[in-house]
Amino acid sequence: MDAETWVCDRALLPSGDVADDVVVEVEGGRFTRVEAGGSTSAEAVRLRGLVLPGMADAHSHAFHRALRGRTHSGRGSFWSWREQMYALAGRLTPETFLPLARAAFAEGVLAGYTTVGEFHYLHHDVYGRPYRFRNEMGHVLIQAARDAGIRLTLLDTCYLTGGVSASDGEMLPLSERQVRFSDGDVDRWEARVSALADGYTGADDVVIGAAIHSVRAVPAEALAVVAKWAADRGAPLHAHVSEQPAENEACHAIHGTTPTELLSDHGVVSERFTAVHATHLTDGDRTVLGEARAHACFCPTTERDLADGIGPARELLDAGARLTFGSDSRAVVDPFEEARATEMNARLASLERGVLTSAELWAGLTTDGHASLGFADAGRIEVGARADLVAVSLESPRTAGASAVAGADVALFAASAADVTDVIVDGLPIVRDRQHRMGDVGELLADAIAAAYEES
């Protein structure tokens, strides 16, 4: 499909309205015309159903896709699940990571994601030794995203310590399973990520950002170094924040404050910052994030799988923060389910319906999600924006019969990733009639996961 003009049966526009017969024209990967009911040539390709802006997966760990179906049953907690995740991380090489990440990203495109924020900490080999090309695993992820047809924000993660001792409040050394995540000290992290970022200066499809794994994994004295690196480059900065009560307790034990307050005290929190999970926050934490206009990335399909808890979405929005959504552990890869689950969780917690508005949920999936990843020009169907389109069938068993007055709510509250039929990224068709340009993504995933577990 080489056409640069499409006609959308129905399309969600920035106003929040759904318009019929929307003509879109694209040049250089950007929308040059968006007109409801406009005339066009016979060569224009029609996109059936409801057409949405591209959506952003604001927090992803691609290699976790190999855990699906292997870690969900039985008793335990986040901490027992983490040991299984470490075991998988210890198996991966550049040769097995590439096909796994490529297939995982392709699954995301099939679901309607056009940008992914990859929280990347598999930096070195299993013994903690740098690869010959010290950013080899980062290059693997960039190649995987390009092959899969998705834009990438690579959030290169600083990871220096193994946690906090509950008995004396001291930072712990890295375990054998964690050494491959670490550069040893923050200066070496900075040198490595600077070299990576310099190699992609000017890339239109890749943003190199930074991440602080957590206040458990980065000492207080290193936080400002990471924050300054991101600020100097105008790059996104993300961190896992208050995912578990034990994390808050450990932070109090060593610093006498909350993770959010600690990060704020060291210059981490700003409008470019994203607090991932943000599940167990104090009123003061919410105020800090809101006043900074920071993002809070909820990953409810992972948070419920790991028994993390229900985050304060409404309270964060009311405080001034911006909400985004991520697939995280990729236990589920479905943007509609992430947004829907956030609202449904809020209903369970509040005993009220409609806690979040449709407009707030769509913003988290589209404009705010992309902005948190450094792509503020994506996530809306309007002239000048990146030309991303996601077509959703209105004839599936899930969506059939929805009233026209439902607008885009049929996607938020009824559709699933399986209803996505076509995906266009920067004007390029990546998915057509539910088929990814790489072929059978299920087969690619099966082969990549089998290879990952076979690798010794």
Report on this structure:
This protein is an alpha/beta fold and 456 residues long. It folds into 2 domains: 5-52 and 389-425, Urease, subunit C, domain 1; 55-372, TIM Barrel (Alpha-Beta Barrel), CATH 3.20.20. 35% of the residues lie in helices and 22% in strands. An 8-stranded mixed β-sheet has the order 3-2-1-4-15-16-17-18, with helices on one face. Strand 16 (420-425) and strand 17 (428-432) form a beta hairpin. Helix 2 (94-111) packs parallel to helix 3 (136-148) and helix 8 (283-291) crosses helix 10. The longest helix has 18 residues, at 94-111. The model has no long low-confidence stretch (mean pLDDT 95).
Separation of the first and last Cα atoms: 42 Å
Number of DSSP strands? 18
How many separate structural domains? 2
Range of helix content: 25-40%
What amount of the residues lies in strands?
15-25%
Please give the radius of gyration in angstroms: 21 Å
Number of alpha- plus pi-helical segments: 15
Structural class: alpha/beta
Biggest sheet details: 8 strands, mixed
In order across it, which strands form the biggest sheet? 3-2-1-4-15-16-17-18
Give the CATH class of the largest domain.
Alpha Beta
Query: What average pLDDT do the residues reach?
Result: 95
Q: What general outline do the C-alpha atoms trace?
A: globular
